[in-house]
Design a protein that fits this description.
This protein is α+β, with helices and mostly antiparallel strands and 163 residues long. It has five helices and nine strands; from the N terminus they run ββαββββββαβααα. The strands form two sheets. Strands 3, 4, 5, 6, 7 and 8 form a six-stranded antiparallel beta sheet that branches. The chain has a three-stranded antiparallel beta sheet with strand order 1-2-9. This is ACR, COG1399.
Amino acid sequence: MTLGGIKLIIRLKKILEDRSIIIDETLDGFDYNDFTFSPIKITGNVLIDLDMLKLTADVNYSYGGQCDRCLDDVKKEEEFTLVKQYDIKEIESSDKEGIDLEETVKEQILLNMPSKVLCKDDCLGLCPECGINLNKESCNCKDNQINPKFAALEKLLKGEGEN
């Protein structure tokens, strides 16, 4: 395996010679949108299986950003197993030297990201009226305000409706 600049390329020629390669690398962290990803630890192997290369690797990393509900800072630790197959003939016929492990891993990390990042599963978020963090304090905004669409229903509940 050769580290070329920042990119981590698993060279096809090396795999064909050795029939397998063990991966134990750490990729640099990166920023994406509002998230900062820590260095990424990758351990696994690449094996030849008939006319295919089979990549199996455990990927460990953490990321930080803001909770989508309350805007508090969030730091999450994640790990997953990456299993991917590559056609040897396809790699040979392309202008690529081998497998770009960095690109593959970063792509899978972003695909594994949740659609909403929360500080905790039951995060209450911010009050839409006063903006207070409802995880830390409570407010009376909900008690005092009634949606005008339901004002007539409230009158009925209080017995003030038309007879």
